[in-house]
Amino acid sequence: MTERAKHAEAEIERARAAGSFGSTLEMLKEIVRLIEEKKGEQTVVLDLGDAPIGTDYFVITEADNPKQLRAIAENVLEGLPREPLALEGLDAPSSWIVLDYGDVMVHVFDPKARKFYDLEGLWGERVLELREDEGEREGEG
Questions:
Q1: What residue segments make up the domains of the chain, in order of their start?
Q2: What does the alpha-carbon distance between residue 86 and residue 1 come to, in Å, rounded to a whole number?
Q3: Cα–Cα distance between 34 and 44 in angstroms, integer?
Q4: Among 62, 98, 100, 141, which residue has the fewest nearby CB atoms (within 10 Å)?
Q5: Under 8 Å between Cβ of 65 and 110
Q6: For residue 53, is it left (φ>0), alpha (ψ between -120 and 50) or beta?
Q7: CB 96 within 8 A of CB 117
Q8: What's the CATH number for 3-132?
Q9: Residue of 37, 58, 36 lying closest to 47 (CA atoms)
Q10: What's the whole-model pTM score?
Q11: How distant, in Å, are the alpha carbons of 34, 70, 73, 85, 94 from that of 40?
């Protein structure tokens, strides 16, 4: 296990011990809720648990302007009880902001950057539907 993976695992355990999240699924739902509060558009969750990339989930959303991208990212940062392991793109006007929580990475794009990088195109068969009513996840594809 890499140092990054060990650190991420320790962060998850700390959040669970503090009662922050009972599961990664609860964290995903909270991230999506925080994104929706700031009007993120076309939000999707990709299940990458068996992909060799070092994270379990991508949450991808978009906004039309740099101020809204920043507002979405800041709302997630302020709304989650744990700090990200890394963050990119928040310090300057950007077309892509990334919040890395180890097991979950949040990508906030402008529409042009989202289309260019096309993360959903790489893993489109892994899109999840988060179902609030049953607390379960369901694959689409």
A1: 3-132
A2: 19
A3: 13
A4: 141
A5: yes
A6: alpha
A7: yes
A8: 3.30.460.10
A9: 58
A10: 0.76
A11: 9, 11, 10, 22, 16
